[in-house]
Design the sequence.
């Protein structure tokens, strides 16, 4: 009897941690809109998400000795996210993750123009993308559901677009489920822009991390980081991560593509070709933390924080230097609306956009 009672008590306690969601205020935007922060907890991991930009504001994960650290870059205050989140730390990216050349594309014979915010490109949905808006939140089992209705013509994109992003945390898995519908033909490419440093945010660079990417090809770019259209083999190049390789092993190699990207800032063509499977794995030998990325998306932008330059001070006063983190942005290929041969990013009324990416944490 006593043992049974103890087992039940223990089970209830674990259930109390697993799936727990806590809400608190995270301030107000300059126009007075209230922003909340939600804390999601599993037995192993704690994730904090704010309703501004749907940003993963902190992500605490244990190392090989059971010691927890925050493994994503970001800020402590809303003000800093509103004013200074140029790198898109942790944010939901939309309507179009990555670049659209010249900010222009043609759909159904009509040309659409997105304001430029990256030289000659529109990047991550234009100057006021989904990273800059306040999402409506509701609690769901193990997490939260965020909704944003983007009006027809928002940042130049056609169609009223209703986007729902569900963050859930179960065990070692932070799962991000994206859904969307439109009332006019449009294009769409959603992702999450978390910057990971598995040694803990602000704790050195990621050059020692061993990365594996399950892709035999990637999309080479021009000097504006726009794909040339070619799907090039990674074989025999610094882009071959089919076997785990330290990020820093070849990043400074004499390679035209690495020079164009100032390091790795490219889209890999996943071998799984849109079927849900493991896209990438990162192992940090220093902490023993492992991150696996699972997705049903056809591409993965692997970005090594080349544009971080020590001018941003983030959480806990940590200065983010060059390559202080890496991003694994599951996505469709950059500039797809201008590349009819790339997998299509078109969404039409009556269709439902649906995609899932999971970040799984463990240690070795
Ligand atoms: C891009 C980088 C860019 C970063 C922050 C990444 O997705 O590929 O070139 O600097 O986002 O905007």
Sequence:
């Amino acid at each position: 009897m006593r043992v049974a009672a103890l087992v039940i008590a223990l089970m209830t306690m674990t259930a109390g941690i697993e799936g727990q969601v806590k809400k608190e205020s995270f301030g107000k935007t300059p126009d007075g809109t209230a922003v909340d922060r939600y804390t999601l907890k599993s037995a192993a991991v704690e994730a904090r998400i704010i309703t501004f930009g749907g940003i993963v504001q902190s992500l605490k994960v244990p190392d090989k000795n059971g010691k927890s650290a925050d493994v994503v870059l970001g800020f402590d205050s809303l003000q800093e996210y509103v004013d200074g989140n140029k790198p898109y730390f942790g944010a939901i990216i939309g309507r179009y993750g990555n670049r659209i050349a010249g900010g222009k594309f043609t759909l159904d014979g009509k040309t659409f123009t997105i304001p430029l915010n990256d030289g000659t490109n529109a990047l991550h949905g234009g100057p006021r993308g989904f990273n800059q808006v306040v999402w409506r939140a509701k609690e769901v089992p193990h997490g939260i559901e965020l909704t944003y209705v983007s009006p027809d013509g928002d940042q130049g994109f056609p169609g009223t677009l209703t986007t729902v992003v569900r963050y859930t945390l179960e065990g070692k898995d932070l799962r991000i489920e994206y859904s969307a519908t439109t009332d006019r033909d449009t294009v769409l490419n959603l992702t999450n822009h978390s910057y990971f440093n598995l040694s803990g945010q602000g704790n050195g660079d990621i050059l020692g991390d061993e990365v594996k990417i399950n892709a035999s090809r990637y999309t080479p770019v021009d000097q504006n980081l726009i794909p040339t259209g070619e799907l090039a083999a990674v074989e025999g190049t610094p882009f071959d991560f089919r076997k785990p390789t330290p990020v820093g092993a070849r990043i400074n190699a004499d390679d035209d593509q690495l020079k164009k990207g100032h390091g790795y800032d490219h889209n890999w063509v996943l071998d799984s070709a849109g079927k849900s499977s493991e896209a990438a794995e990162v192992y940090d030998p220093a902490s023993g933390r492992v991150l696996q990325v699972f997705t049903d998306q056809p591409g993965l932008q692997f970005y090594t924080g080349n544009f971080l330059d020590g001018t941003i001070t983030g959480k806990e006063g940590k200065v983010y230097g060059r390559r202080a983190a890496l991003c694994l942005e599951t996505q469709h290929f950059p500039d797809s609306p201008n590349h009819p041969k790339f997998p299509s990013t078109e969404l039409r009324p009556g269709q439902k956009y649906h995609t899932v990416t999971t970040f799984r944490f463990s240690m070795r």
